[in-house]
Amino acid sequence: MSEKELSKDESLELISNMITQAKRNLARGGSFYFLLWGWVVMLANLGHYVIGKYELYEHPYIVWVLTIPAAIASMWYSARKRKRAQIKSHLDSVYGLLWLGVMISVLIILFFLNEVSYTLNAIILTFAGLGTFISGCMLRFSPLVMGGVALWVASIVAFNLTPIDQYLVGTVGILAGYLIPGYLLKKVESEQV
Predict the structure, then answer these.
(1) pTM of the prediction?
(2) Are the C-beta atoms of 132 and 146 separated by less than 8 Å?
C-alpha cells in the first residue's frame, strides 16, 4: 500500500497541528510540577531556615526528606501523562530532557556538597531559574519566564548571604519563581479544558 503524497498546504497544516498538539502536551499538566515542587521546596527552605536559625534541631537539613515523596509523585505523574499523550513530539522530549538535566546537575552539586557548602542553595536557585526560564520560553508563557528571572535574582541575593539566610531567600524565590507562575499556568490549563 503506497502512502498518499501530501500537498504543500496539507503538509503545512499537518506540521502546524503537530506543533499545536506538542504545546498542549507541554502546557497540560505542567502546572502540577511547578506547584508540587514549589510547595515542597518552599516549605523545605522555610523549615531549614527556621530550624537552623533558631537552633531547634541539630540537623536542620532533615526537612529535605520531603523531596523524596515529591520525586516519586513526579515520576508517577510523568509516566501517567506520557501514556495519555496523543502525540509525542520532539518538543515534548526536549522539555523532559531539560528538567532531567537540571535534576542531574543538582544531584552532582549535592554529591560535591563539601566543595560548595556555603553556596549550595544559591547554586540550586540558579539551576531552577534556568529550567523555569527555558520552560517559559518553550511554552511561550511569560509568567514562567519572569519566574526564572525571579529565581536568578534570588540566587544573586543568596550568594551574598550567610548559608542559613540563603534558605529564607530561597523561600521567597520559589514563591515568585514556581508557585505564582504555577498557579497562573494552572488557570490557563483549566481554561483550555
Answers:
(1) 0.85
(2) no
